[in-house]
């Protein structure tokens, strides 16, 4: 979770700080939390940053209910570090930003292996792009398709329906158009409201958003959640390296990776908290068909420049390491 990233920022500074610092090192950390200063991400960040003072760090925290503004302030130098979704972080690092590609990471076991690989020192050169460095990646949970009417239970029945897509993520629009549905430009701040108000019929979101964004209101008595991950959603901590001690990036990445159990436990709890009546299972045949569709979509979007080929190759290598019998493992087109 994003608060895991914030906690890691403080802890990694502790590793780099001298035993008896002469003065506090001032940094400004900007945290995306839809609930602002009242949200869980900001509350946990504030708790950990109080501890950071013991290690010589004076971290000024800023809560942002709008993720777009966090990214803009990071680019403008108003933030020394920012905790945002990986999808939004793609503009700072295209390689890492391609991690949340549709269908590329099937489950938590795959994600754990991917995150461990990305935290390896050998991957460090790919973590820096321009003035920015990705110093932590944490899970936010699987993105599940959620519908206002459980009669929308296949690609065919989704045709013509309105689907909320992030207006700044072209890959989502392409995927929806491929399904024959209508993409409706949205943002993290309003996609749930559009779903609840009936402006869109379909959304994709992790379980951690279900209660805070009151998605159950859009479900009513007929809605459903497909028990089939569309993608594994993650968050990133991005810093301006010049504001931090040299070499802090690798320490952070390794520390974040050591703290992931807390995030996975939280996600599992939130998934269990979704009422059983909402979950809808797909047939094995439909699951296989959707896996093929998502793979084909990834290949197209990789060729179009939406996804980084190096990340797609890494994610495929992980999939084939876990399940060498996958048909895709004999192919060379991803």
TrEMBL record:
The lineage of its organism: Bacteria, Pseudomonadati, Pseudomonadota, Gammaproteobacteria, Moraxellales. InterPro entries: AdeT1/2 (IPR045758), TRAP_DctP_sf (IPR038404). Pfam families: AdeT1_2. The keyword Acetylation does not apply. The keyword Heme does not apply. Gene3D superfamilies: Bacterial extracellular solute-binding protein, family 7. This is RND transporter. It comes from the Bacteria.
């Amino acid at each position: 979770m994003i608060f895991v990233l914030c906690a890691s920022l403080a802890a990694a500074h502790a590793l780099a700080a001298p035993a008896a610092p002469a003065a506090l090192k001032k940094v400004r950390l900007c945290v995306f939390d839809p609930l602002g200063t009242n949200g869980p991400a900001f509350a946990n960040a504030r708790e950990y940053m109080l501890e950071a003072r013991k290690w010589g760090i004076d971290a000024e925290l800023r809560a942002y209910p709008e993720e777009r503004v966090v990214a803009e302030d990071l680019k403008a130098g108003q933030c020394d570090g920012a905790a945002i979704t990986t999808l939004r972080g793609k503009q700072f690092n295209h390689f890492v930003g391609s991690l949340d590609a549709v269908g590329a990471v099937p489950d938590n076991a795959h994600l754990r292996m991917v995150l461990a690989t990305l935290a390896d020192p050998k991957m460090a050169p790919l973590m820096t792009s321009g003035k920015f460095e990705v110093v932590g990646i944490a899970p936010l949970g699987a993105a599940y398709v959620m519908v206002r009417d459980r009669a929308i239970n296949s690609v065919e029945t989704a045709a013509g329906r309105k689907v909320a897509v992030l207006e700044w993520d072209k890959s989502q629009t392409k995927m929806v158009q491929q399904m024959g549905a209508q993409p409706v430009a949205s943002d993290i701040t309003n996609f749930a409201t559009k779903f609840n108000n009936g402006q869109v019929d379909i959304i994709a979101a992790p379980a951690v958003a279900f209660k805070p964004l009151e998605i159950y209101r859009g479900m009513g008595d007929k809605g459903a959640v497909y028990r089939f991950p569309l993608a594994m959603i993650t968050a990133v901590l991005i810093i301006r390296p010049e504001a931090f001690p040299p070499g802090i990036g690798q320490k952070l990445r390794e520390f974040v990776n050591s703290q992931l159990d807390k995030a996975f436990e939280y996600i599992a709890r939130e998934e269990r908290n979704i009422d059983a009546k909402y979950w809808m299972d797909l047939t094995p045949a439909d699951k296989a068909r959707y896996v093929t569709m998502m793979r084909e979509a990834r290949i197209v979007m990789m060729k179009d420049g939406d996804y980084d080929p190096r990340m797609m190759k890494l994610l495929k290598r992980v999939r084939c390491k876990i399940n060498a019998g996958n048909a895709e493992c004999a192919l060379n087109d991803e």
